[in-house]
Amino acid sequence: MLSAVCVGETMAMLTPGKAVPLHQAAELHCGVGGAESNVAMGLAAMGLDSHWVGRVGRDGFGTRILDELSSHGVGISGVEVDSGRPTGLYVKVPAQESDPDGGSSVLYYRQGSAASAMGLGTLASPAVARLLEKAALIHLSGITAALSADCLEMMEAILASPRQGRTISFDVNWRAALWAGQDRSVLRRLANLADIVLVGKDEAEHAFGTTDETELRRLMPDPAVVVIKNEAISAIALERDGTRSEVPALSVDVLEPVGAGDSFAAGYLSGVLFGLEQKASLRRGHVAAACTLTVHGDRGPLPGAEQLAAILNSTDAGWTAIHVAGGHFASENRSLQDRSTAP
Questions:
Q1: How many CA atoms lie within 13 A of 63 on its CB side?
Q2: Among the options 262, 298, 316, 338, which is catalytic?
Q3: Among 6, 152, 171, 253, which residue has the fewest nearby CB atoms (within 10 Å)?
Q4: CA distances (Å), 213 to each of 52, 95, 216, 245, in order?
């Protein structure tokens, strides 16, 4: 089985039990959130031997994270538990009906977290070294680079390492709060060291100063492919040889957008690892993202194998006719699940 290793911070996530302002919340729901671990869980669901490398505190939040990842089939042998630093925490503040244009917001409590102490020592851990050595894919994100100087040094070491058959992917994952007062040009340098770069078109303007495809490829000439996620419109793969592939996004009744980018990354990267061409890999990304867009939380369950095959093998016309609502895929007024299981 192909192995994938995702490196980064996972935090405990607190959310008001009801869609009320934080100061009025009597109860907070405790969950788990982290871009790299979301991808790790997505890759596990896609049939890969998936692992997460990171650090958590020796506290209840850290235990919750490890239990959650294990329950989704993600290996945690490369996780270090820190007795002195806490697990990072963030609070999701829901959008209010009284201010529909305000949107939801996030409060971070991650400075000095256990994960911010990741560094070259993390890579020297025998357990981590073994995982990275046998990995077909190592997945990183720009979030980790902003956590501390040690984290950045670790990222640089991974990206500069000999590939020896491995693929290293880098999701920009722009977080404005993390880069305030920091040199964001680091993101371009790191991305250009990767084999696969994923970036949202909305993120590209902040991280690289442009959304133009030609300019983005000029700024990052070395990766084998740069994937631009153009929100609800399409996803575009720009290969180093100039080949351009574009797949339109599926029509989706969006319930919540959180986690969709990580799900897209897991779907797309799994396709690449399975040797699929760009169009098929982009479709896998869209399907995984659609499943997450139609549920609360950071991940939505994937369709069964037969249904997934029916969706991915659609003609171009059939693909554009698919609509997703409540995790259910339908086309031409008929369920794709019914079609895939019909005698």
A1: 4
A2: 262
A3: 253
A4: 32, 33, 5, 12
For residue 271, give the nearest of 302, 298, 293 by alpha carbon.
302
* Max Cα–Cα distance, the chain, nearest Å: 61
Residue 99 φ then ψ, to 5° = -140, 70
Amino acid present at 166: R
Alpha-carbon radius of gyration of the chain:
20
Q: List 315's β-bridge partners, or say none.
A: none
How many Å apart are CA 288 and CA 263, to the nearest integer?
5
Cα dihedral: 70, 35, 146, 22 (round 10): -100
Residue 332 structure tokens: 């031409």
Is 82 marked active-site? no
Residue 38 carries which side chain, given as an amino acid letter? N
For residue 190, which of 133, 254, 144 has the smallest C-alpha distance? 144
Q: pTM of the entire structure?
A: 0.92
pLDDT computed for residue 340 by the predictor: 37
pLDDT tens per residue across span 68-115:
999 999 999 999 999 999 999 999 887 665 554 455 678 999 999 999
329, containing H or E segment: strand 328-331
Q: Quick one: tokens of 175?
A: 């977080």
